[in-house]
Amino acid sequence: MKKIALAATALAAVAALALSGCSNARTDAGGDSSDAAGFAADATIGVALPDKTSENWVLAGDLFTEGLEEAGFKADVQYAPASNTVAEQQNQISAMITNGAKVIVIGAKDGKQLGAQLQQAADAGVKIIAYDRLIENTENVDYYVAFDNFKVGQLQGEALLAGLEERSGHGAPWNVELFSGSPDDANSAVFFNGAMDVLQPKIDDGTLVVKSGQTEIAQTATQGWEAENAQSRMDAIITSTYGTETVDGVLSPNDTLARAILTSVKQAGKDVSTFTVTGQDSEVESVKSIMAGEQYSTINKDTTLLVEQTIKMIEQLQKGEEAEVNDTEQYDNGVKVVPAYLLDPVIVTKENAADAYQNVPNLLEIVEAAQ
Ligand code: BGC
Question: How many domains does the chain have?
């Protein structure tokens, strides 16, 4: 999946939206207009989240439970367990459909493996909103709601360059290594492609040197977004590639992995105040690390705003309206461009942290305590 402007498809999507209410492929032969009429204001809404690989997923579950109930719905929020996750998430979604959910919000564990369940949802007239992670290779995903993931990657690439300038104590060329997320998460490639949009020209012109030679996404992947996998890959790279030489920075796609990479670099005896590593998610431990001058950057993707936007979309569907979207071009899932509502991610470093977290009290407190 790439971020490409598919002009023709996008036009078709806009046209389809314009015809909303009467163009829905799910309206059955008998002219059932249940989509146009919406559904009961106290209906059950399913929320299927992946395993808790970062704090944002934990927070999302709590916010959905509260927010949906406040909006008058019944909330059925489930996490896939850490083991056998894909099969469990498939079962959870099937059960939500059987139990009469009208909308299911899905943070997919593996966005390529929900085809059968989403066909079941379509047959039952259940709307599907892909949350944070795109669901691929199926036409049965109605909406996507997320922070602009390609932009997240671009911001990470820019932050890596800025950090190298600020902290390394020398000019270009800089030695860097690249990490990406789990291959079963559609976001991983989008983050990586966004970052490489900024970094590839700098690799090509010699500003950056990837000494390990590992620049293909498959070589940089971190299975399951697990910290230990990132740490052992970093350990292996340091041992095999950086004898007397220094690694100046690492592109890390999120905070959990950034901290694992920092651990590895510290264990190898490097002074991390001259090292740059990026991140994402504004996890508490990473915000502390940034304020202590270790991790260089993170991204603020305010989960509260993303959950609020999702609930707004569900309320529109409940009334029988189309959900509002602001992008009908970028997120092609391999079968169609999924109409999306994208929020703006914000890059955070020590310098702008107080400003960036002014509406996030627990993080602001950490920033102020460190200043
Ligand atoms: C999310 C990131 C998160 C990662 C691991 C991604 O899909 O967008 O925010 O760090 O999953 O949980």
Answer: 2
